[in-house]
Model the fold of this input.
Amino acid sequence: MSTGTEVPVSPLGVAVPTKFLDPSSFMVWSANALLSFDISPEVRRSGNRSNGGPSGGRFSGGPRHRSIYKPPPPPPPGSGSLLEPRRRIGFGDREFSDNCSESRYFMGTEETRKDMDIDSWCLDLSYDQWVPLPVSGQRPSARYKHAAAVVDDKLYIIGGSRNGRYLSDVQAFDFKSLTWSSVRLKMEPQIGNWSPENLLSTSGHTTITWGNKLLLIGGHSKHDSDSMPVRFIDLESLQCGIVETSGKAPVTRGGHSASLVGSKLIVFGGEDKKRRLLNDVHILELETMSWELLEATQTTPAPRFDHTAAVHGDRYLVVFGGCSHSIFFCDLHVLDLQTKEWSQPEIPGDMISPRAGHAAVTIGESWYVVGGGDNKSGCSETLMLNMPKLVWSTLTTVKERDPLASEGLSVCSALIAGEIYLVAFGGYNGKYQNEIFFMRPKPRNSSRPKIFQSPAAAAAAASVTAAYALAKSEKLDFFETEEPIKLVVNKKDVSVELDAVREDKKVMELSLTEARQENSRLREKIEEVNNTHAELSKELLSVQGQLASERSRCFKLEAQIAELQKVLESFHSIESEVEVLRKQKSALEQDMEHAAAATRQGSGGLLSWLSGAPRSS
Done:
């Protein structure tokens, strides 16, 4: 049994990229804060972080937790396996193998068929199932909390964390040759003494594609600044550097989300370098590289990190999951970017377990969520949110120990052979991962975007739509009488349309009823709040009256105390006068005694002389 340090555990941390097919596409990367250099992240949340940054822990300062993952058994001694541990790292009563040199960015090899065609391989995949992709040659070092992006025919992996250390390499996977290669970067000349290793040594950052560049936003590193840095990688010149921004930049953070809407980058939440949780919204205008704070109203989501976010209809920012230092969330929040109002809609569909550190990507109107978990177990199901209807469904489930049931993995979308596929890489589930997994999502029918609005507005819209449906039905009946030939030809179509209209009418009436019930419930709540406010107002008036009387008493007491102080001050002079009088009295008494004695002596001699008595000698 080893005697290492047992620390609090978090099984989460995520990259969330998305599609790169049109200017409105976006990619989100969310990862929990960076781990300390002296503690391997198999067990985390000790509250420590080297270089003054956060530990990335969700339970720092609270009770200590064991990792939800158990290490795989080591190979038999002397087996000669590549997995035979070179050193052991102990945590409590558990040991983990570390057989990767920190100075190397590649590990392991895997052979595949030289004549394998990625297009044919992808087209043979079953829908909604994860399959590992055969890879030729060396693979990059396993990691988690990295950034990932697909540009043209390559998957780029930037930075990340392994064994509590920041990684600074950039790896590229070519979908055509099915091989990995390391991207050697050079610094922009005006950067100075920085090197690519120092600049890109980051974990928990986000990345988006902008033109021919990859923009890296935020994250934690050894060189944390006060404001959020924006770094870039030019994929044509292979240069990297720092983007100069204007405006009030947000504080540096990790585990945030970044969503692209046109030329605006929406940043939400995260955890700063002092482990403070955030729920603010900042916008970076990429045309001018200027920051601004978005002042949103209504009920803001609780501060969180390691959540995911997506944009729907170029108007709504949808935020899902994440965690605080002690609570994991499964809620869904929507920010209307036009009205700047938050809302929390009720979501039908499958029951969703709380999670953080998951990865997510959008394809069309479907939002796919992979991995993540809480402090008890990892999430093995792959979820899909129908964004227009806001309905959850479970697509597939992997085994508990599967690499996809991990934290800190990334997921992107890639266009191959005319279809869009999900591409997942990396993560940590008790073991660091460096495999690539593919999923062929089943095509889904598109729907009209859902407009998030108040119940009253929804009821009004439902009434108008129902009236329109009835008018349309009457119009169809009219044409049936005026044009009997068309009636015979289109009777089936008209019947189907009428059935659809009637069904829509039922749905709208149901929505209207629900809206009225919601309004009634809100009125009751408002009345309850008003009653509570009235009672509190009365109590406040009573307390204010008591306070006024107490103030009056205090003023009187202060006046009495002032008078008593004056009397006490006069006591000193009175005591002095009394002392003088005492001395005068004592002197007077002495004088009187002397005078009495002299008088007695004089009267005695006269009597003796008169009586003729002899005087004593």
Q: What stands out?
A: Residues 455-546 form one domain. The radius of gyration is 41 Å.
